Amino acid sequence: MPPAIESYDAHQILTPGSGYLRDYDYSLNPYVGCAFGCSYCYAAFFAPPERQASWGDWVQVKRNAALKLSRLRRPLDGKTVYMSSATDPYQPIERRLELTRSLLPVLSDRGARLVVQTRSPLVARDIDLLQRFKQVCVNFSITTDSETVRRAFEPRNPPIAARLDAAREIADAGLPVAITMTPLLPVENPTSFAHRVAETGASRFIVESFSPTAGRFRGGTGQTALELAERLNWDGAAYEQARQALIFELAPNIREGEAGFSPG
Ligand code: SF4
After folding, report:
1. How far is residue 37's CA from residue 156's CA, in Å, rounded to a whole number?
2. Same domain, residue pair 161 and 67
3. Residue 264 falls within a domain, yes or no?
4. What is the pLDDT tens value at each position of the chain, 264 positions in all?
5. Could you list the residue range(s) of the whole structural domain that residue 19 is in?
6. Position 234 in a domain
7. Among 21, 41, 123, residue to substitute to test ligand 1 (most atoms within 8 Å of Cβ)
C-alpha cells in the first residue's frame, strides 16, 4: 500500500550539523518520514512516538522548503550540506512533486557543497542539476549483494541492480559517487560484492557494522530479517570476515563508520 502523504509548512529547512554529522554545517530533510521503511532505520526513533510503529507508512512533505531555502539570510557559500539525515530525499512521491529537485538550484546558486544520501535510482533524474555544483557527492546506499536479504531487511527499497545501475550512470556523468554499505547486511559473496560496487565507478566506499538489536526493529519485517540473519549465521565473525574482504578489495578508498561520512 502506498504511504499516506501529508504536507505542511516547516519552520526551518536547515539543521546545524551535530553528532554523527558534526563535520557538516547543515543537514537538510525535504521530507519527514520515509516510504522506504527499512527495518533497521534509526531515523524512525526521531519520529513522534505514536508514529514510530507505522514508520514507512507515512511521509510528510515540507511544501515550503524551496521558499524557505531561497529566503535564508545566512550565507551558504562553501557550507557543507548533508541531504538527508532522517529521510531519503528521493522518496517515491518525489518523482511527481520534484521537491528535492527544486532545492538543488537554490543550493548550487548559493555556493553550497552538497552530499546527497539516497538509495533511490530517481537521483539520476537530477544529474543535470547536480552537475551545477562546484562540489557534490552522491552517496548511494547499497547494503547487500543478496535480493533475499534485501527483501527481508529493506522490502520497500529499490532492487540492488537498479541501485548499482543508477550509481554507474551518475559516475559516468562525471559526478563523484560513494557507495555506503551502512549498515552492512548479510552478504553472500563479499569479494564479488566488492567488485560489483567498484565497477560502478564510485570513488569512495563506506562500511559500517549492522547491530541486530531487536528493540531497534520495526515490527513484523524486523522479525523476519532477524530470523534470516540467524539462518545465514550472520554473527560477529561473519561480519568481520565480510568487512575484511571488502577492505582488502576496496582499499585504499574504503573508510569505516563515522569517518567515512565526513565531507572532506
Ligand atoms: S531510506 Fe534511510 S531514512 Fe528511509 S527508512 Fe531507510 S534508513 Fe530510514
Report:
1. 7
2. no
3. no
4. 889 999 999 999 999 999 889 999 999 999 999 999 998 888 888 888 888 889 999 999 999 999 999 999 989 999 999 999 999 999 999 999 999 999 999 999 999 999 999 999 999 999 999 999 999 999 999 999 999 999 999 999 999 999 999 999 999 999 999 999 998 999 999 999 999 999 999 999 999 887 665 444 444 456 777 788 888 888 878 888 999 999 999 999 999 988 888 887
5. 1-134
6. yes
7. 41
Any atom of ligand 1 within 6 Å of the Cβ of 217:
no
Would the pTM of this model clear 0.85, i.e. be above it?
yes
Q: How many CB atoms lie within 10 A of CB 199?
A: 12
CA distances (Å), 153 to each of 72, 109, 142, 209, 224, in order?
39, 38, 12, 15, 8
Q: Are residues 4 and 126 in the same domain?
A: yes
> Cα(142) to centroid of ligand 1, in Å?
12
> Distance, CA 36 to ligand 1 centroid (Å)?
6
Q: Which helix (H) or strand (E) holds 151?
A: helix 147-153
